[in-house]
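Continuing the batch. This is chain 6 of the set; chains 1 through 5 are on the previous pages. Same settings as before, nothing changed between runs. Recording input and output for traceability.
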Amino acid sequence: MNPLETMTDRVIVQCAREVILVADHTKFGKVATSIVALLITVHKIITDEQTPLDMLEELCALGIQVIQA
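Output for chain 6:
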């Protein structure tokens, strides 16, 4: 990721009233080279039906609304 883009994304997340993350099943369980925000700042996650059930349960336990599309 571009460091300037990451910094901009962080500011956007900090200003947002609601944070919605859109990620398909291939994005879960991966290690990233940069962090935009902690998972606890996310309110909703929209993902596909192939996301592992145990991951969905963990997200729900954190109070994150999960929407599978």
